[in-house]
């Protein structure tokens, strides 16, 4: 069973399970000079990670895209709307289809939040296997 890592400065939640074997893990950095945002948030990561005046607000999608790119297809399987969400609230996450890779995904997201000094949370998703039977 997956146990959330203890990362200083972060609140890593216990996985929230939902239908079809899907789950998500909330990865929250508790402080930072930048925030996660929408609307006027930068949709690309800043060139100067240490300078908070360069993009004071970053979209979650930019971080999730980078995590997906950095981890590669062996671990990360894309980004998208969590299948755990309901009609009132949707969150995007980067996801994997293997619990064996959940820890690497959480650590990558924490590393990016640290590197860009972002306060806020993103989600690491674990998608259950989908089976098809050809008739």
Describe it:
With 135 residues, the chain is an alpha/beta fold. It is 19% helix and 27% strand. The protein has two helices and eight strands. Strands 1, 2, 3, 4, 5, 6, 7 and 8 form an eight-stranded mixed sheet that branches. The longest helix is centred in the last third of the chain and has 14 residues, at 102-115. The model has no long low-confidence stretch (mean pLDDT 84).
- What is the overall shape? globular
Helical proportion, percent range: 10-25%
Show unreliable segments: none
Distance between the termini: 35 Å
Structural class: alpha/beta
User: Mind summarizing the main beta sheet?
Assistant: 8 strands, mixed
Number of strands: 8
Strand coverage percent? 25-35%
Report the total helices: 2
Which assembly state applies to the chains in this document?
A: single chain
Nearest-integer average pLDDT: 84
Helices and strands, in N-to-C order?
Answer: EEEEEHEEHE
Rg, Cα atoms, Å: 15 Å
Fold blueprint:
Blueprint: E1 10-12, E2 16-17, E3 23-29, E4 34-37, E5 57-59, H1 60-71, E6 79-81, E7 92-96, H2 102-115, E8 118-126
Parallel strand pairs: 4-5, 4-8, 7-8
Antiparallel strand pairs: 1-3, 2-3, 3-8, 6-7
